[in-house]
Structure formats: structure tokens, C-alpha cells
Amino acid sequence: MKILTFDVEEWFHVLDHESTKGEKQWQNFDYRLDANIDSVLEILDRYNQKATFFCLGWLSKNHAHIVKRLDAMGYEIATHSNLHQLVYEQNINDFKNDLETSIKSLEDITGKKIRAYRAPGFSIKEENRWVFEILISQGIEIDCSIFPAKRAHGGFATFGSDQPVLINTNIGTIKEFPMSLDEVLRTKIIYAGGGYFRFFPYSVIHHFMGKSNYSMSYFHPHDFDAGRPILGDLSPLKKFKASVGLKGALCKLENLIRDFDFIDLDEAVKKVNWDSVSMIDLPERRKKQRIENQLIFQNNYKQTVKQINKGSTIYGS
Ligand SMILES: [Zn+2]
Q1: Residues 193, 246: one domain?
Q2: One domain for residues 15 and 40
């Protein structure tokens, strides 16, 4: 199963970087999304190829026509958050508000229910497992945020699966489509999107894609923009990652679509037999932990009082 998805954001939605950290800073940059989306849609249209588009809720402010256009063309719309912030830098309330805003903004444009979510930068870590309960409580049925290995932005190395699974929480289950990884020089990499996709020659990408029985892609419209500006204040490594292989990327995308059968997320959900996939238990531990800590404290307190009454210390003699 090979799933074709795009994260719809502008070229300046760079994570973990001072000059691109929020809406105020984004006002300093020119929009390039219209032209970038045009080149992607031209290829999809040529091959009559379906895809899922994870859109920022932020698009509703200046790019609502793009979401409208994607929806009108029959593409599935999902959410990529509202303001493209790292999940592990948000508290529960901030995350919930951002998610709610993104869902409402996108649903207002399309008039359709938003069912799927992908975190910016795959930034859900093991300690942010509370995210899944918030997603479920907001009506999200499918998550595509898990990077089941270590990475710069988060990564969930102990997740335990790189195949579709169900995640079990205290309030229900959610369908998870993790990123599919391969290994180069003992480093786990994602080959179907972003820097590595642009860096490797097509023959290598074709090899990775061909040998895997499950591939989840995550392309960005700016991955195919040979003329995109590169921010001057990026570190040399980030500059390299942002600029490598931009020129040939669109051609690689076309080759992939020509050479492999891709489906969108909606189709993938129907194809998976959810009764037979693994169930990963990720109950939100914080509430439980708090209650357990309280019980331990109460028990210790009772024991101490009892022993003081008896005339001994808690340590006994
Ligand atoms: Zn993103």
C-alpha cells in the first residue's frame, strides 16, 4: 500500500527557527503556494491520481481559495494544525485550541468533516501521548504523525510499529498510519518526501519504494519550487536541506506516480483490516499518575499518623 499525501504550507513555515516562528514573522515573506500547488495539481491531473492534502488552518486567512480548489477537485482535505507549531512545545490547552481552530477553519471552507491529522514536523513524542485523547475528543479518527524512530523534531522511537495500527487511549481508539522508514548508514530516514526525497537520485527512491509493502509519503508544495528563496539566517545544514534537489524534484514526483500505484488516505483506511492490526496502548498517564501519586501520599500520611500515635517513627525501629 502506497499512500500519497501532501502537507500544504508555505515555504516559510520553517520549524524551530526564530525568524519564522509565528504569524507576525510570516508577514515578512512573499506567498508562493499558488504557483507551487499548480505544478503539483498538473501532474496529479495528468495521471488522474488521488491524494490527501494536510492543510494548515492558517490557510483560511489568505489561501482559502486553495483549500476550496483542492476540495472542489475531489481531493481529501485533512488538518496539519492551525499555526504549524511543534507539538512538544505546546501545553494541552494550546494544542487543543490550535487543533479546534484548524478543524473549524477547514470545515467552514469545505463543508465536510475533517477526519485526519498530521503534526508539524512529526513532533509527537512519547511524553506527549495526551495528544491522542485530544485528537479523539475533537472528532479526529486518523492520525499520520508518528515518526517511529529518533529525529530532530520529536520522533517516537519506542512506538513499536511502522505499519498501520490502532492506538488505544483512555477514551477510545484512533487509527494510526505512521511514517514508513528505511535505513541508510544505520540512520532511519523517510524517503517519500522532504529533504531525503530531494537528495537521493530517483533510482534510490524507486528502490526504497519498490521493496516496501507500506509507504506513507509527505510531500510539500515547496519541495518542488526550484525558485524558492532560501532564508539567509539558516544554519549551513538547514540551508542545504532546504535547497538540495529542488530542481529535479517535480520530475521525480511524476516518475513515482507513473511507476507505482498510489492511493489517498481515505482509500487506505478502507483497505486496512482494522480487526487484525496491532493495538498499541497509549493511555494518557498524567491523570492516572497524578491519582496514583495522591494515593501513595495519602497512604504514607495515614501510616505516619498511625505510627506517631503508636509512639514510633515511620522508619520503625
Ligand atoms: Zn509542515
Answers
A1: yes
A2: yes
Which amino acid belongs to residue 261? D
Global pTM reads 0.88
Tell me whether strands 165-169 and 142-143 are parallel, antiparallel or unpaired.
Answer: unpaired
For ligand 1, the distance from its centroid to the CA atom of residue 292, given in whole angstroms, is 37
CATH number for position 211: 3.20.20.370
Element (DSSP H or E) covering residue 294: helix 285-309
Distance, C-alpha 204 to centroid of its chain:
24
Same domain, 147 and 226: yes
Question: Per the structure block, which three cell numbers stand in for 9?
Answer: 504550507
Burial class (CB in 10 A: 0-12, 13-18, 19+), 126: middle
User: What region does 76 belong to: left with phi over 0, alpha with psi -120 to 50, or beta?
Assistant: beta
Rounded CA Rg of the chain: 22
Report the domain count for the chain: 2
Around ion ligand 1, which residues have CB less than 5 A away? 7, 9, 120
CA of 19 to the centre of ligand 1 (A): 16
pLDDT at residue number 314: 41
| Residue ranges in the chain modelled with pLDDT below 50 | 291, 312-317
How far away, in angstroms, is 313 Cα from ligand 1 center?
58
Cα 9 to middle of ligand 1, angstroms? 6
